[in-house]
Design brief:
Layout: E1 7-16, E2 22-25, E3 32-35, H1 43-49, E4 57-62, E5 76-80, E6 95-100, E7 103-113, E8 116-120, E9 130-141, H2 144-149
Antiparallel strand pairs: 1-2, 1-3, 1-9, 4-9, 5-8, 6-7, 7-8
């Protein structure tokens, strides 16, 4: 069976940046499982998986526009430490969610200078070229319930 809209796909992967640093992999947690065609992956990766089948192995390099987008400087701002619940516990690299239009936004602390904290609302991989090594491990038709709910159920997916 080929990967197409409304198929459940499992794949092993290694994700590296352009410097060869491993950013993520399926080695520890097992294959990534998702419902194809509903936007659960970055667009470029979902496009590259289209038409593949069990056993296919391939490498793909995604430009930022096909992954998490370019870094948007408007999403970087400085806020007073006093805006935080525990201003003395803040550290560069900490992440937290804040409410925003359309849902929560993940912010990352990128700098602390005196009484000011720089936070970045960009995805941590925005602006990065993503280099994947992929092995497709399973492809099956999604159940009607999975299609209706928009995600995979059972092993590797969501359990209700």
């Amino acid at each position: 069976m080929d990967i197409a809209k409304n198929t459940v796909v499992s794949f092993d992967f290694i994700l590296k940046n352009n410097d060869g640093q491993v950013l993520d992999s399926s080695e520890k947690d097992g294959p990534l499982v998702y419902l194809h065609g509903v936007g659960q992956l970055v667009p470029g990766l979902e496009n590259e998986l289209e038409g593949k089948k069990i056993g296919d192995r391939f490498d793909v390099s995604l430009a930022p526009k096909d992954a998490y987008g370019e870094k948007n400087d408007e999403l970087i701002q400085k806020v007073p430490k006093s805006e935080f619940q525990s201003p003395t516990d803040l550290q560069v690299g900490m992440q937290f969610e804040v409410p925003a239009q359309g849902g929560n936004v993940l912010l990352t602390i990128t700098a602390i200078e005196g009484d000011m904290v720089e936070v970045d609302g960009n995805h941590p991989l925005a602006g990065e070229t993503l280099n994947f090594n992929i092995t497709v491990t399973e492809v099956r038709a999604a159940s009607e319930e999975e299609i209706a709910h928009g995600h995979v159920h059972g092993p590797g997916g969501h359990d209700h």
